[in-house]
Design a protein that fits this description.
With about 375 residues, this protein is of the alpha/beta class. Helices cover about 45% and strands about 10% of the residues. Strand 5 and strand 6 form a beta hairpin. Helix 2 packs across helix 3, helix 2 runs parallel beside helix 12 and helix 7 packs parallel to helix 8. The chain is globular, with a radius of gyration of 22 Å.
Length: about 375
């Protein structure tokens, strides 16, 4: 499952269900940073450029293919009852891989709950993500091991966390940047407005990366804002830019420039990746109730993986041997993920009390003792 996997996971329509047809969002091409067209043609931009080796281009393609395959496997596992929930990134691979590969090891990432591609770029094992959605671990990974914070379910709150962390980075005099991911719906949250205010006033080295996938669950972007999202940054005193979120090269170039700007002491920047959520908001959502199939079909023609494959093939930067090997690698990844999820042990009941306070806390100690006594009561009843 690689390029054509979007069609394989296309949601079914229900003729008996009345859906609201939203006006198709469009991006002003004069304001959209694009380096690779939907047809796979390489173009230049006056402000953002990038020069990648064939190996690096193949690496970006590999990242997107493997991320999509892992994501598809997670959706299937949830449908089979192996996961409690899953938020698919289908269609947003370029935005996440492009921005994720722009990061340095010492940069710090604050994600939402859909940044599986960014997690991949930060070497977070996919099984750790699935363990969290299966409910068998308390977070999934140590954020400090990969400079990748735990997933944040509360909408928009991570932008404040990122801003505070970035303010600390600046005070420490560190040569690194922070990036916060959020969606178009989260841009309406007060936390995001506060984060913009504090980051601007304190000139914090943070990049706000908004994945505008056109739908905040069932609400289209046009009901979230009267102006393009990237223009909101102007009111807070820092620049914003809109990039083709289905163009991995443009996302890489723009994010790399924004991060370097932050590291050099020029303050925050807002990047709006104009993309599309191909699937449901989460596996508990039914997008056929509020989206027209025609809208999805328009965006399928802009598929981020297809356009890069077209470019690689046309320019003879990758051959069939490469694509075949990658297909085999994606099959192996899917099997590893599938086997790992089904064999995950239940967590230690007492582990939830660990890693709360660095030096311990009396209240946590009391709660731990109470919970231990509660667990022991079941053993006593068994006798």
């Amino acid at each position: 499952m690689t390029v054509d996997s979007t069609a394989a996971r296309k949601p079914r329509r229900s003729s008996s269900t009345k859906r609201t047809r939203a006006k198709q969002p469009t991006a002003d091409q004069t304001q959209l940073v694009q380096l690779l067209t939907p047809e796979g043609e390489r173009v230049e931009h006056p402000d953002y450029s990038i020069d990648l080796t064939p190996e690096e281009l193949r690496g970006l393609y590999r990242d997107m293919v493997l991320t999509r395959r892992f994501d598809a496997e997670a959706t299937t596992l949830q449908r089979q009852g192996e996961l409690g929930l899953w938020a698919s990134l289908l269609g947003q691979e370029a935005a996440q891989i492009g921005s994720g590969r722009a990061l340095r090891d010492d940069d710090y990432v604050f994600p939402t709950y859909r940044e599986h591609g960014v997690a991949w770029c930060r070497d977070v094992d996919p099984t750790n993500l699935l363990g969290m959605f299966r409910g068998v671990n308390n977070g999934g990974w140590d954020p400090n091991s990969n400079n990748f914070h735990l997933y944040t379910i509360v909408i928009g709150s991570q932008t404040l966390h990122a801003t505070g962390y970035a303010m600390g980075v600046a005070k420490d005099g560190a040569d690194s940047a922070v990036i916060a991911y959020f969606g178009d719906g989260a841009s309406s949250q007060g936390d995001v407005a506060e984060a913009f205010t504090f980051s601007a006033v304190y000139n914090a080295p943070v990049v706000f990366f908004c994945q505008n996938n056109q739908w905040a669950i069932s609400e289209p972007t046009e009901r979230q804002t009267r102006v393009p999202l990237y223009q909101r940054a102007q009111g807070y005193g820092f620049p914003g830019v809109r990039v083709d979120g289905n163009d991995v090269l443009a996302c890489l170039a723009v994010t790399r420039a924004a991060l370097e700007r932050a590291r050099s002491g020029q303050g925050p920047m807002l990047v709006e990746a104009f993309t599309y959520r191909m699937g449901a908001h989460t596996t508990s959502d039914d997008p056929t109730r509020y989206r027209a199939d025609e809208e999805r079909e328009l965006w399928e023609a802009k598929d981020p993986i297809l356009r890069l494959r077209t470019y690689l093939t046309r320019e003879e930067l990758a051959d069939e041997e490469f694509f075949t090997a990658l297909e085999q690698e994606s099959d192996a990844l899917a099997k590893r993920v599938r086997d790992a999820v089904r064999s995950m042990p239940d967590p230690d009941h007492m582990a939830i009390f660990e890693n709360i306070y660095a030096d311990g806390h009396a209240l946590v100690d009391e709660e731990r003792a109470q919970f231990a006594a509660y667990q022991a009561s079941f053993a006593e009843e068994g006798h």
